[in-house]
Amino acid sequence: MLTARRLARLSLSMFIPLLAGSCTDVIAVQQFAQASREVGIQFRPLAVDGLRSCHRAATYLLPGQAVSNCLFFESAEPTLLAVNNGLFSYISSLGRLADLDAGKTAGSLQNVGAELQQADPKISADSLNKANASIGLASALVDVMASRYQQKKMVAIIEHSNSAVQQVAGFLDVYAAFRYAQQIRDEQSRELAFCTQWTDPAVPGVATEPIAVDLLKRRCTADFDSQAEKIAAIQKYQQALRDVASAHQKLYEARNRWNTRQLVTDLAPAISQISEAAQAMKKAF
Predict the structure, then answer these.
(1) What is the maximal distance between C-alpha atoms in the chain?
(2) Distance CA 200, CA 218 (A)
């Protein structure tokens, strides 16, 4: 006859394997989610600097140059932040991590298409479709939280969300990041032209202000280095988006036969590159 203590011990020994078998117990996924989350968090400083870059560019106007139009960055920034948060909150949830903007992501995405069209009337239908896919990721985030990380449910969520991940990552890469990089290059080119003119001894008045010219040269050199670092960091963000899409694709393809050791092998390169991108973005912005 079983004693109460032995019965409890036996029940526990049966429960633990059952629990382990029902959960996605893969460290690689958690590492992937953590690295991705750090990249997602660093997008906000990048976006904020995009608008500031536009305003900085306006201070380097030379005669005949057009004034920078900063309305796009003012109007589009909240929506681009919401799309970025939608992607990286979903990825974070796969590793049981908190989302990037708790309680706001889903609501902010409801009018993503209309808001982007208002900010950029020339935005392509393809870009709009990809951005709108972020609405599905907001729903997937809710589903992940409700799944209690049971493997069968997680597999279904990843299967259903893979297309949206590919589309949203592509939108942020080709549209959002491109626009921010383009803006910093515009600032860089305007400042370079300004500095070239006002450090040229042939320009009237320049030769009579050696101290001011020397200070301007130093500032221009420092700004150019900073701008180059920011452009490189945006390129790292773009590569991280491709790595996130690729890693999620691997989770999707292996969804019915997850193996911890194989996932570590498959995801390790992406995790490393995504982590490097987060550090580069944090340093630049």
Answers:
(1) 106
(2) 14
Nearest to 234 by CA among 52, 50, 36, 37: 50
Return the domain boundaries, the chain: 26-183+234-284
Report d(CA 156, CA 51) in Å as an integer. 39
Closest by CA to 260, choosing from 24, 72, 21, is: 24
Which two structure tokens, joined as six digits, stand for 275? Answer: 């982590």
- Distance between CA atoms of residues 189 and 61, nearest Å: 11
Torsion angle, alpha carbons of 214, 216, 217, 221, to 10: 140
- E strand or H helix at 32, and its extent? helix 27-57
Q: Using one digit for the tens of pLDDT, what is the confidence trace for 215-256?
A: 999 999 999 999 999 999 999 999 999 999 999 999 999 988
Are residues 45 and 233 in contact, defined by beta-carbon separation less than 8 angstroms? no
| Tokens describing residue 173 | 């890469």
Rounded-to-10 torsion of CA 155, 160, 166, 172 = -110
DSSP per residue, 84-133:
HHHHHHHHHHHTT---SSTTTHHHHTTTHHHHHHHH-TT--HHHHHHHHT
Quote the pTM value: 0.86
Instruction: Please name the amino acid found at residue 175.
Output: Y
Residues 6+ away with beta carbon under 8 Å from 216:
195, 198, 199
pLDDT digits (tens, 9 = 90+) for 24-81: 446 888 999 999 999 999 999 999 999 999 999 999 999 999 888 899 999 999 999 9
